[in-house]
Design brief:
- With 189 residues, this protein is mainly alpha-helical.
- The chain has ten helices and no strands.
- Helix 4 runs antiparallel to helix 5 and helix 5 packs antiparallel against helix 8.
- The C terminus is likely disordered.
């Protein structure tokens, strides 16, 4: 299986290029280490965008949301049902608040009861699956806000101790697509 994501016209690449101030692929190729032709092939979906390409575009255009969008359509993202939806901040925040309340009220108690014996038996499976679906919705809602922040250049500052740990391992979380960042974060601890 290919490590690249086959995309049909990933519009987010063209939109990010234009938002970064590069009206043409020629001007973008000054910052992006690809030829205008390669940039065009990626933007049209003629050539698959590899994870490394997504990272190059994100750095070159100053748009970390490219990584989130890429991972939603990479083979892993598609297999896990990862979705990315652009939402206005007020709507995304209201949606998150409602889902957090539901999760705190219903899901936590349900999961605690199921996890008591460490086994999900056949009788608990439907309730567990419902709780899992709610958690997946919550994850998508959190991604809405992360996507908004990334698309608007809002970055969360790292705690001081995280910076020292990252320097020791010479990793940068922003250099890794979100679908791979969990493993890097675990290694950095």
């Amino acid at each position: 299986m290919s490590a690249t994501a086959t995309k049909t016209a990933p519009t987010y690449l063209r939109e990010a290029r234009i938002a970064a101030g590069y009206a043409s692929r020629d001007t973008a190729s000054i910052e992006v280490p690809y030829s205008p032709e390669t940039i065009g092939r990626h933007e049209r979906g003629d050539v698959p965008v590899a994870p490394e390409d997504a990272m190059v575009y994100a750095r070159s255009y100053g748009r970390s949301d490219i990584l989130i969008r890429y991972c939603a359509d990479c083979p892993v993202g598609r297999a896990t049902g990862k979705q990315v939806t652009d939402r206005d901040l007020p709507f995304a925040t209201l949606r998150l608040t409602q889902r957090l309340r539901k999760a705190a009220k219903d899901i936590a108690a349900t999961l605690e009861e199921i996890a008591d014996d460490g086994i999900v038996d056949e009788g608990e499976r439907p309730v567990f699956n419902t709780a899992l679906a709610s958690l997946e919705e919550l994850g998508e809602t959190i991604t809405d806000i992360v996507l908004f922040a990334a698309a608007h250049g809002i970055e969360k500052a790292r705690p001081a101790n995280a910076e020292a740990s990252l320097q020791t391992h010479q990793y940068s979380i922003t250099d890794v697509p979100p679908c791979q960042s969990r493993n890097i974060r675990e290694e950095a601890r």
